[in-house]
Structures are given as structure tokens and as C-alpha cells.
Amino acid sequence: MTYPEALAWLASLEPHVIRPGLDRARALLARLGDPQAGFHSVLIAGTNGKGSVTADLASILREAGHRPGVYTSPHLVRFEERIAVAGEPITGDEVAALAGEVRDTIAAGRAAGGPAAGTAANGAADDTPTYFEATTALAFLHFRRRGVPIALLEVGMGGRFDATNAVEPILCAITPIALDHQDWLGQTLAAIAYQKAGILRPRVPAVVGHQETEAIEVIRAEAARVGAPIELTADCRIQETLRADGRPADPPIFSLVAPDGARHADLAPALRGAHQIDNAAVAVLLAKRLVATGFAGIDDGSIRRGLARAVWPGRLELVPGQPTLLLDGAHNPAGCRSLADYLRRHQAGRRKVLVFAVMHDKRSDQMLDVLCPLVDAVLITSVPVARGESPETLARLAAARHPRVQRADVTAEAIAAARQEAGPDGLVVVAGSLYLVGEAQKALVS
Asked: Distance between the two ends of the chain, CA-based, in angstroms?
């Protein structure tokens, strides 16, 4: 199988829609020899911030001398971004070889008539693994072959029935929960929190980031039910450090006193936005827990260096130029509120133009409610995926919220128009979807 053939085969699994349950993932992994048993795992769930926590913790581990595997989703430009070892993405040749192995294993299972073959455990006619399940299996194979000591796994959409939850983790984390993917996870914070809390395990420590009351009550109850000890960033003493002029730094600087009394002063994460303080705090608490499990070299120095050197593209990423571009993967109202806070705190006084596209299952009306009052013009565009919302719909919604709305259906054309609208000293804000950020990154290098 070649690399293009591997991507085409994985893409062919996309029509196999989300079907809750872990039977398919577990059966596929069993046929592959349970590669996830070859390394320790940390599961990181949540609505917003889980990728940032993963990036922060991976960087801390690298600074401490370890070679973590990292599995995240979705990718921005290339599939290989999803799977990395010690900061190095998987190669195209490795993707091709491993995808062929996963494909052949699925075919063998189908021929044998097992639960990961053509018949579902509930008797349904088709139980073919989904794109995410196959990709997760591919990642686990890669980590085993590379001999990683630990894998940091960003949970996909939910938690309880996510393919990553087929592992037995040594640590878990839950970042802030917000309303997102309601069609699959539930219509309330409590329902979504129940799905996210499905990663908790008996006697496996979990770190929980800032949560709304409705969500934390569910997480606490589920932790008590399964016997999972939890540690909250809310129990830390966190203070943001201001600059000499009294304004917050960009990126932020903060001090943290952990629940065990240990003080970490003047931590300076590389990731922008005040919300990254809580994400960094989650990573710090996870790192401290890893010390107790035998991962040597994690100390205040490696924590400090790790946060300062973490890289997580497309999340409040400033691209210098005239004008400057701000790429942010905010794809739900909560994410847009974090983006809006950053614009108010650090980009006030600049002419700002929003380039916006979103998936059709998102609350684009609420997202535009948050962002439109902060920008001087809006450029509506689209993303080339089936789930993308139509530019016609978005243009109508934007026009109801802003007097200056333009439309350019191709991302590169939208960015070009936004640059002209913003002027050399302005700011072009690209937000609404990680797929849009990926298209913007492609346009910048073309």
C-alpha cells in the first residue's frame, strides 16, 4: 500500500458513521496483538483545551528526557500531524505500512466472522471500524513499534465510547467541558460531562481543569462511583503575573501553588490566551503525578522549560506580516469566548477582520454573536469538507450581526480580501473551524 492509497483507504471509512461502543475498537486491537499494552497511556478528554494540555505535557516529558508518543486529532494540513514520537511526526512510509496492516487485519476479521468483522455484536449487518477507530489502531501500532514508554492520547469527540478509551491509562485528565457535539453527546453540560467522565478508572488518578458547576458535579459523582481519585486545578492557588505597565503578558505568565503545597513561580507557557493558564496547570499536575509512577527527570526545571517550548499550531497562533494573521481553531461558542477575551486583552485598538467558516453541526449563530462585535469586517468562506456549513447560510447569519460582510468561497481568496480590508497594521482573525485553519495554513505556503 502506498501513502496515497493509505489515505484513500482511511477516507473510505468516513461513511461509517459514529456508532457508540468500544467493541469494534477492542476487537480490532485484539487482532493486532493489543499494541496498547506495550506502553503506558494518559487519556486527556474535554471539550476545549485537551490538545493544548497534550502539547504542554509532551513538551515537559521531552525536557525531562523521555520519548512520549502523542496522538491528537484532527490534523490541520497533513495526516502525519496526528501521530508523533518525541516530537517527530510519523512518516508517510510508516503510515502506508501500518495502514496496510490494519486493513489486512480488518479483512481477516471479516473473513473469520468475528465481532470486528462484518457483523456487529448487536447483530447489525455492518460493523466496519470507523476512520477514527482505524487511525487509533494505527497510532497504537506505531507507538509499540517505536518503543515509547508513554503515550499521551487526546480523546476524540466524547470519552466513554471513544476508541482511545480502549486503553488502560495510568493517568487521566478532563479539560473544560462546554456544549459541543450535542447530537452525539447530549443536550446539557451534565450529559456531556457524563460522556467525558467515562474515561475515569478505579484507583487511576485524574486531573480536572476548570469546570462549570453542572459539569463538575457529574465528574465528582462519576469519580466517586468508580473510585477514581481526582485533583482539581480549582484547588490550586494560581496568580497571573502582570507586566511593569500593569497589563497581562502575551503569552501569559503565572505562578501556581499545587494542592501538595509545591510552588511553581513565574511559569511562562508558549501558548497564548488566559485560558492557557488553566490548561498549563492541568499539565503541571499531570507531570507531578507522573513522577510518582516512575518517570524520572520531571522537576521544576523541566516543567518550566516544557511549558515555554510547547508548540500547538493553529491555536491563537500569530503569523507576522502586514497585516498580522491570527489563526485560531475556536470551533464552538466557548472557544470563541476565549478568542474574544484574547482580542480584548491583547489586540484592542487594531483594525480587525474576521475570516469565518464552520461545520454545519456547530452553533454558528452563537459563535458570530461572540465575535462580530469585536471586528470591523467579516469575510465568510467555506471549508472543503462535507460537514461544512454553506457560505450562503453563514453570510445571512453574519449580515444579521454585522454591517460589513463579504463572501469568498475559497479560503485563499477570503484571506487575500481580508488582508486588504484590514490594512498593513491590522489583524486578520481566522476562526470557526480547525479545518479552516488548515486551509489557511495551506494558503500561506502556496
From this structure: 28
What sign does the dihedral 191-197-199-203 (CA atoms) show? negative
- The amino acid sitting at 213 is T
**Per-residue model confidence as pLDDT tens for the chain (446 residues):** 999 999 999 999 986 556 678 999 999 999 999 999 999 999 999 999 999 999 999 999 999 999 999 999 999 999 999 999 999 999 999 999 999 999 999 999 887 775 544 344 444 446 789 999 999 999 999 999 999 999 999 999 899 999 999 999 999 999 999 988 877 888 999 999 999 999 999 999 999 999 999 999 999 999 999 999 999 999 999 999 999 999 999 999 999 999 999 999 999 999 999 999 999 999 999 999 999 999 999 999 999 999 999 999 999 999 999 999 999 999 999 999 999 999 999 999 999 999 999 999 899 999 999 999 999 999 999 998 888 999 999 999 999 999 999 999 999 999 999 999 999 999 999 999 999 999 999 998 87
Angle at 288 between CA 285 and CA 291, to 5 degrees: 155
pTM given for the model: 0.95
How many Cα atoms are found within 13 Å in the side-chain-facing hemisphere of 255?
9
Q: Which CATH architecture has domain 317-445?
A: Alpha-Beta Complex (3.90)
* Degrees, nearest 5: CA angle 86-92-93: 100
Q: Which fold has domain 3-309?
A: UDP-N-acetylmuramoyl-L-alanine:D-glutamate ligase (3.40.1190)
User: Domain locations in the chain?
Assistant: 3-309, 317-445
Q: How far is CA 32 from the centre of its chain?
A: 26
Instruction: Name which of 430, 367, 357, 365 is nearest 391 in CA terms.
Output: 357
